[in-house]
Amino acid sequence: MELLNCTSPAMILERSASVLGCSILDQKLALHLDEHDALQNLRQHFLVPKVKDLPYTDLSYVDEKEECVYLAGNSLGLQPKHVKTYINEELDKWHKMGVHGHFEGSRPWALGDECIVDLMANVVGARVEEVALMNALTVNLHLLLLSFYKPTSSRHKILIEAKAFPSDHYAVESQIQLRGQDPKKSMLLMHPREGEETLRMEDIISMIEKEGDSIAVILFSGVQYYTGQLFDMPAITKAGHKKGCFVGFDLAHAVGNAELYLHDWEVDFACWCTYKYMNSGAGSLAGAFIHEKHAKTIQPVLIGWWGHEMKTRFLMDNQLQLSPGINGYRISNPSILLVCALQASLEIFNQTSMKALRKKSVLLTGYLECLIKQCYTKDESDPQKPYVKIITPSNVEERGCQLSLAFSVPIKTVYKELEKRGVACDMREPNVLRIAPVPLYNSFSDVYRFINILGCALTASQKEQA
């Protein structure tokens, strides 16, 4: 689509609608965008739930044969079709081979994670030896902080978002306490300016410059889970390093969503889950990264068998030969069933590139933004009309695919009405719906359907209030 050379999604949409002789609000535009979507074939690799199978759908509102409007990939990605096939292959191998499955077949159990780590490294912009697939996100965060957080009397603080995901907050707080420090003094919380929802980059850099000499570790999310803000990770890393800090990121909402170049940005460490945009199922295998510059200088505090070099691991002589870098942090072999689920998703990512996915994502989320602003902006002439406020940054460089929407009517009522009508999205207290059109499998028609259903939900919410 030649119009994609324009920088503004709104401009692309306006020009496309003009060529078609229709309004941006016309379904004709959504169908046109889908028809010219170079990545549209990727959707066929996923299983999209039918509205009749969702637990809270009211079939008096929807056609039970329809697929739901699935906009919750920021919470749990859709199931790739090959997951069941791959898991069944391993169950069959277990049945037929028993213990021999550890080193036989295309996916040996003892090497299962290593069979797909190159695909994961591509997604996060890292070298293969800098990435490991292991554990769950917060377990990996704890393991990494044990190595990178070495407080001294003068450098003992960890800089983190004030509204970080609770798990990160708890991990940081407990790591500070574990080292005999006081979280009230050593946990440096970064707040937005009064009256604002998101953090300004100039404020983050200013905080690092001001407090950097006392900061041991900077830990930010790549994409903020509540607001959907995409942080400038290379700028934060550069500023942190300038002050002598280690810089790490929780990439739970960034991996598979934003372009990442962890090696080139010289990020010190990172960790992520794979059940959101990476579509590998609830409780799936997580990832971790340590830059190669630390391979010989940073070592794990807690060590397990799987951190021993593979070539001598099975000598069983209890003489540790620690794998360098992140591979030394592996505690034990991961479940092959979790490997199967992640492999099925990574193979789909391998059919395209994060650059291509990001290009579609900018337009797809821009389309959602334009329709919300056209249809549900606050109307000063009608103060009773429900409206929507987007708290995610409008600058496409400062967001991924998620838009966080705040409402003038009770959020739980709106959410309930959307569920009745076959929309799967995500509600977060106190007052936000997180809507994530995922470029791997969502279409422009999904966004169009959501906008129309949202109108019905708002009307129903208003009637319930009356």
TrEMBL record:
Biological or metabolic pathway of the protein: Cofactor biosynthesis; NAD(+) biosynthesis; quinolinate from L-kynurenine: step 2/3; Amino-acid degradation; L-kynurenine degradation; L-alanine and anthranilate from L-kynurenine: step 1/1
Known catalytic reactions: 3-hydroxy-L-kynurenine + H2O = 3-hydroxyanthranilate + L-alanine + H(+); L-kynurenine + H2O = anthranilate + L-alanine + H(+)
Cellular localization per UniProt: Cytoplasm
Record keywords, A-Z: Acetylation, Cytoplasm, Hydrolase, Pyridine nucleotide biosynthesis, Pyridoxal phosphate
Primary enzyme class: hydrolase
Residues where N6-(pyridoxal phosphate)lysine is found: K276
Domain of life: Eukaryota
Record-linked InterPro entries: Kynureninase, PyrdxlP-dep_Trfase, PyrdxlP-dep_Trfase_major, PyrdxlP-dep_Trfase_small
GO cellular component labels: cytoplasm
Binding residues for pyridoxal 5'-phosphate: L137, T138, F165, P166, S167, D168, S221, D250, H253, Y275, W305, N333
GO aspect biological process, one term: anthranilate metabolic process
Family according to the record: Belongs to the kynureninase family.
Subunit relationships: Homodimer.
Biological role stated in the UniProt entry: Catalyzes the cleavage of L-kynurenine (L-Kyn) and L-3-hydroxykynurenine (L-3OHKyn) into anthranilic acid (AA) and 3-hydroxyanthranilic acid (3-OHAA), respectively. Has a preference for the L-3-hydroxy form. Also has cysteine-conjugate-beta-lyase activity.
Identification of the protein by name: Kynureninase
Source organism of this protein record: Acipenser oxyrinchus oxyrinchus
